[in-house]
Structure formats: C-alpha cells, structure tokens
Specification:
Elements (H helix, E strand, L loop, with lengths): L4 E7 L7 H12 L3 E7 L5 H10 L2 E6 L4 H7 L2 E2 L1 H6 L4 E4 L5 E4 L2 H12 L8 E5 L3 H11 L5 E5 L3 H11 L5 E4 L9 E6 L17 E9 L8 H8 L4 E3 L2 H16 L6 H9 L3
Parallel strand pairs: 1-2, 1-3, 4-6, 7-8, 7-10, 8-9, 10-11, 11-12
Antiparallel strand pairs: 3-5, 5-6
The structure holds 2'-monophosphoadenosine-5'-diphosphate (ATR).
2'-monophosphoadenosine-5'-diphosphate (ATR) binds next to helix 6.
C-alpha cells in the first residue's frame, strides 16, 4: 500500500478542532489518500514542530491560534492575500522544498456568505467588529465583493485605525469606536472579536442593523453565540455562526494541497446535524 501524504493542523488549544474530521471527509469524498492530524503546538515550539513534521514527510499544514502570524513570518513565499493579511492559516510544501503561505479564511467566509447563504455583498454596508488577526484575514476578500464601504469598530480605536489605513488602497474603509456607530445602519455585521470565546458580546447599540440585514459570527459552537442571539433580537434576516466558514476555508486549503475541490454542502449539513 502506498504511503499516505501527511497533513496536520498546529495550534493551541487544538483538542476540539474539527479540521481532522473535515479533511478526512474531504479525502473520502474525493478519493485522496492522505492523513490529517491535530497537533498541540504552542508558539515557542512552532519552528521545531514544523521541522519535525517536514522531516517526517509532511506535505502541508494548517495553522490556527496562536500561530497564524508566526506562520506568516516562517513562510518562504506568500500569496498576495496572505501578504496583506499578515496571517497565514495554510502552508503548502513546494517541489523545491519551499513553504508557500496562504490565507484561506477570508475566501472561506465570502464563499459561505455568498454561495451557501445567498447574501449579496455588492454595494452593502459592512460592519466588522474587532481589529485583531481574524479581521485582518477577511478584509481583502470582502473588498473584492465591491461593498459600499467597510467600517471596523474596535474597543481599542487605534487598532481599527491602523487596519483601515493599511487596507484603504483597496476601497472605502474606516476605523472607529463602538460609540461612533450608534446612529449608523449596516446590511451585514460580522463579529471578528474573540468576545464569543468568553461568552461575551461587544458593546453594540440597538437599531444599527438595517432592515433585512444579517449577522455573522466568525466563531462557532454547539450553541448560538451571544452575538447570534443579539442578531435575533435585532430581527436579523439571518444570524449565523462560522461553521460554514470553517468548512469552506478547509476546502480551499484542501484544493491548494491536492488540486481537487471538495463539495462542501453535505459536509456542512453533517456537522450541523451533529450539534448537540
Ligand atoms: P484574533 O486573532 O482572534 O482576532 P486578537 O488579535 O487577540 O485575536 O484580537 C481580538 C479582538 O477581539 C480585538 O479586536 C479585541 O479588542 P481590543 O483590540 O480592543 O482588545 C476584541 N475583543 C476581545 N474581547 C472583546 C469584548 N469582550 N468586547 C469587544 N471586543 C473584544
């Protein structure tokens, strides 16, 4: 029997990662012979873990919290979207031994919004909550959908300003404080803060979601996040979490590694049905 190509996700904590399951399902669906494991890797062990993984024949890696910026620094080459986002979630071993870094988070989000949920982003007023690594990864792919504008609100206003300065060459984007948006209206509000991870909600005013507007939390869990529940109280047409984005970013990584595009909808349905 031929050896299986090896892939893995590195991060910490990693024990609840759904990525091994998702990639196993992709491999079965597309008849690809590969293995995919989750490895608990803290930041200070990242370099040595990569070294060992490549020496043992690893072909590609996903990197998650807290390693995305380190992976960006470690990559020998970067895709354009990874260059700007300063974060890498996918490393691809090239034939010459170089590691190519890419970021599939943003395209995963856009695919979930536009294809799976039929949310039209063109000319829409988008609000992104948070100005950390998660926000960085999604701005360029969102801009490519030609929204009317993107506003980034953050507790620490300076971080939102820095981000908007960096991405202003791509389109209309502005950074501000939560207080500055209380009289505005948005068609789509994306929660890219880490607040949901601690069961918290960013300080949002009521009535900033436009009629027929949608809410999307980049985080996901078995239960609706506080932000999804907030969206429901604001009569959001859809109030979604990031499970679809997780599967779509994985599909894009799988495509980069194997040159085969898995079909995602049955897998999203399956994972949804397993929520308890
Ligand atoms: P990530 O890489 O997941 O984006 P991060 O870089 O630590 O993580 O960024 C976390 C983001 O969530 C930040 O924008 C943070 O706001 P500050 O920059 O002001 O710290 C935001 N955040 C975390 N908890 C929050 C909360 N309870 N309410 C609002 N924003 C929160």
């Amino acid at each position: 029997m031929p050896d299986k190509d090896r892939y893995a996700v590195f991060g910490q904590p990693i024990n609840h990662s759904k990525s091994p399951r998702i990639h196993q399902l992709f491999a079965e669906q597309t008849d690809q012979l590969l293995s995919y494991e989750a490895q608990d890797v803290p930041a200070d062990a990242f370099e040595s873990a990569i070294h060992v993984f490549l020496r043992q024949g690893g072909k590609g890696l996903n990197c998650t919290v807290p390693l995305k910026e380190l992976a960006w620094q470690r990559a020998d080459q970067l895709s354009q979207r990874a260059t700007r986002s300063k974060a890498v979630n996918t490393l691809i071993l090239q034939e010459n031994g170089a590691l190519l870094g890419d970021n599939t988070d943003g395209i995963g989000l856009v695919t979930d919004l536009t294809k799976n949920h039929q949310i039209n982003l063109s000319n829409s007023r988008i609000l992104i909550l948070g100005a950390g690594g998660a926000s960085r990864g999604i701005i360029e792919p969102l801009m490519q959908q030609a929204p009317k504008h993107i506003i980034i609100a953050n507790r620490t206003v300076e971080k939102a300003m820095t981000l908007s300065d960096e991405f202003s060459v791509l389109g209309k984007i502005k950074g501000c404080a939560y207080d500055d948006i209380k009289n505005s209206q948005f068609d789509l509000i994306l929660n890219a803060t880490s607040a949901s991870l601690s069961g918290k909600l960013p300080p949002l005013a009521d009535n900033i979601l436009a009629e027929k507007g949608c809410c999307y939390d980049l985080a996901y869990g078995n239960k609706p996040t506080p932000f999804m529940l907030w969206g429901q109280t604001q009569n959001a047409e859809k109030s979604l979490d990031g499970l679809g984005m997780l599967v779509e970013q994985a599909a894009e990584a799988f495509y980069l590694w194997r040159n085969v595009r898995p079909e995602t909808s049955a897998i999203i349905d399956l994972l949804n049905s397993e929520r308890t």
